[in-house]
Write a structure and sequence with these properties.
mainly alpha; 5 helices; binds MU-OXO-diiron
Length: 171
């Protein structure tokens, strides 16, 4: 049976991951509106990954005898001052999630909850990868900002991004 504090913290993280999925969908929608379908595709896959993260927490909580409490998810930001700002915002989101996961891990260590530490280790590694993916995306977006030919080529490149294995089978 999971510790009540850890159960609450994992519940909060489940909602943050769902919120991250909604935020990425909002960014995908922003790029759809700009007719940048490659960028929109990239962020749609990010949303799918976040949904996968939320469902891992959903499943884990049930496996260890916890409960999910369905709560409101804050409204996602839908307007941005430009392409770079939209991607920058997604990097800030990933950095925040990394801090959240670290906070969860710290609590799992303090509570002597070895099972949850083991569970969270996957998220620790995933956040390193997620930050790297978005940081690279931001660098590329900054490079092409203001150059329509380069923007066109990057948009075409992003259409080829494939979903991570298993990321589409989360529900
Ligand atoms: Fe689930 Fe990208 O954090």
């Amino acid at each position: 049976m999971i510790n009540a504090k850890m159960e609450q913290l994992l519940n909060e993280q489940f909602h943050r991951e769902m919120g991250a999925a909604m935020q990425y969908l909002a960014i995908s929608s922003y790029f759809e509106d700009q007719n940048l379908d490659g960028f929109a595709h990239f962020f749609r896959l990010q949303a799918q990954e976040e949904m996968g993260h939320a469902m891992k927490q959903f499943d884990y909580l049930h496996t260890v005898g916890g409960k999910i409490t369905m709560q409101a998810i804050p409204q996602a930001r839908a307007e941005f001052g430009g392409y770079v700002e939209a991607v920058e915002f997604s990097l800030h989101q990933e950095e925040q999630v990394t801090q959240d996961i670290n906070h969860l891990m710290k609590n799992a260590v303090e509570l002597g909850d070895f099972a949850t530490q083991n569970f969270l280790q996957w998220f620790v590694e995933e956040q390193v990868e997620e930050e790297d993916v978005v940081r690279t995306m931001l660098a590329k977006t900054k490079m092409v900002d203001g150059n329509s030919s380069a923007l066109y080529l990057l948009n075409e490149e992003l259409k080829n991004r494939k979903a991570e294995p298993g990321a589409d089978a989360t529900l």
